[in-house]
Amino acid sequence: MNARSIDLTIEHLVLHGFAPADRARIGAAVERELARLVGERGLPAAWREGAERLQGGSFAPTPGERPEAAGARIAAAVYGGPTP
Hints:
It is a single chain. The chain is mostly helical. It has one domain (21-79). It has helices at residues 23-41, 45-48, 67-79.
């Protein structure tokens, strides 16, 4: 099996309604979850077709939600799957 690598750059992640102190934890969680999703499911069709911009949509933070959970929801939205 050939291992391939991809380079994914998130230029701009807008987070309204989240604590500024949580931004690094949210960003790290987004990266981890995207890596997991791509590793398990492969590249989404939009990515294979060369999309240069992806929209993750929007959703409200859940009161008391941990930054890691928010990051996982963001990653799932960007990936194109259902949010957990």
